Amino acid sequence: MKDRQERLLLGAFGALLAFGACEAVSRAGVVRRSYLPPASEVLARAVELAGDAVFLDGIAVTLRAWALGLALACAIAVPVGLVLGSVPVVDAAVRAIVEFLRPLPSVALIPLVSLLLGSGTETKVALVTYASIWPILFNTVYGLGETDPLAKDTLRAFGFGRLSVLLRVELPGTAPFIAAGIRISAAVALILAVATEILSGFGEGLGIFIAQAGLATDGTRDVLAGVVWAGVLGLVINGVLVWGERRLFPWTPGRRGVG
Amino acid sequence: MLRLDTVGQHYGDHQVLHDLTLTVPDGQLLCVVGPSGCGKSTLLRTVAGLLPAYDGTITLDGTPVRGVPDNLAVVFQDYARSLYPWLTVRENVALPLRRRGLPRAERRAEADRILARVGLTDTARRHPWQLSGGMQQRVAIARALVCRPSLLLMDEPFGSLDAQTREDLEDLLLEVHRTDGATIVFVTHDIDESVYLGDRVVVLSPGPGSKVVLDLPVELPGTRDQITTRGLAEFVALRSEVGRAVRNR
To answer: Which residues of chain B have pLDDT under 70?
Structure first.
């Protein structure tokens, strides 16, 4: 417990220091204010935006694309991962395609997908889904590979068949890995949602807000306030998912109670 | 009756069991002893149908064993790995009953009945990882008994427990065997344990290609006791005989 407090305190101290440095650099006139406004002004603007209905609508639009894309990615990646992880023949056949597609930076696909689907929700959802599939898929396959053979043998010895082993042992055993994959994908999904908006430049969303502020004179403060919002969203999402994982999988190593 | 006739088993080119012949009458508690790596666990897994193929024939009540036989239960040494951490103790114990198509309420009742028998009534709603090692192995035993198996295979089940817990569980097993009368094949490397528990002790030679080097009936009183039984002259004599066979002297 003391460790935790100490870490929190150090973290707060670090954040405060960075905040102070930005503030000081700007106030001292080292860089022009229009390039780097004082941190306090950026923060004040970010708080102010919380009362701006249009801005909040934009956040809702971004989060909707994020959630939809992530949900689709789960719906695709988990079953595909289960098949790849448990049927070696399929894995061997698909492996080459997967290894080709995976290293493609999803951001590089934004212009292509925009061309095909326009610059609306469909494009965002498609790109978020595509980028989010990989961490979930690979974690599912990896988790299956990590299933304890003894846990499987135990169920088999009670006369259960292969499908039962998959559903009753391998799937629940892999669930913590899948959840970790979803948490990684959640961050990737947010990047793609915002980046797609910034690059496409039309419509509504957090990325649109940032892109348009970038075009305005003296828009840096708004750009940075938007970035602060993106950061806070990422932080909150991650926190909620970590909390959820702890609640759902209390047996995973490191959190296991002592007998 | 479990019959093994010239059974062989190998992993790739590595011959683990060779020409093993053994008959276990119904209701016998057979202890299989041997040095590490002699193929005891392989023997057990072969009988359980967990290994894909074997040479020779294995029959259970006259029917050749292909795959996992019905009415079989296995208890492994590593309870932490064979109990499911995402299920409660009760759910773990009730799990084998799902194959019987019993309704939920009956599965629950059966699980509670068997948990009471192994002295774990209060832990039904906890999770295995919240229990001590001895209690976890009790859960594994309860889960093995819940389907009233006619053949119970145990692979060094008490090997990782402390002495006191181990003795308690040995007595629990003897009590279960007396009441249920299942055939039990109990694999161990502990010579004392084999003589204390067994109706009969079989010693395997070191691998590869293990064979039966000693087949010894244990003629000790049916009701055994950790203190008095282990002090009997017969017990000491049997233990020495098994010990010599294991050490090949």
So the answer is: 249
As a whole number, mean pLDDT of residues A19-36 equals: 83
Q: What superfamily would CATH give domain B2-71+149-247?
A: P-loop containing nucleotide triphosphate hydrolases (3.40.50.300)
Using CA atoms, how far residue A175 sits from A37, A178, B84, B85, in Å, is 45, 5, 13, 12
User: Chain B closest CA to A251's CA: distance in Å?
Assistant: 6
Answer yes or no: is A2 within a domain. no
Q: How many domains does chain A have?
A: 1
Cβ(A143)–Cβ(A176) below 8 Å: yes
CA B93 to chain centre: 17
Residue A124 in domain: yes
The shares of helix, strand and coil residues in chain A, as percent rounded to the nearest 5, are 80, 0, 20
Inter-chain touch B132–A259, beta carbons under 8 Å: yes
Nearest in space to B51 (alpha carbons), one of B42, B60, B59? B42
Which of B49, B74, B129 lies closest to A256 in CB terms? B129
* B138 in contact with chain A, both atoms CB, cutoff 8 A: no
Which chain B residues in 97-126 lie under 8 Å from chain A, judged by CB atoms?
99
ipTM: 0.89
Q: What is the pLDDT of residues A150-187, one digit of tens each?
A: 999 999 999 999 999 999 999 999 999 999 999 999 99
Select from B48, B127, B136 the Cβ nearest to the Cβ of A157.
B48
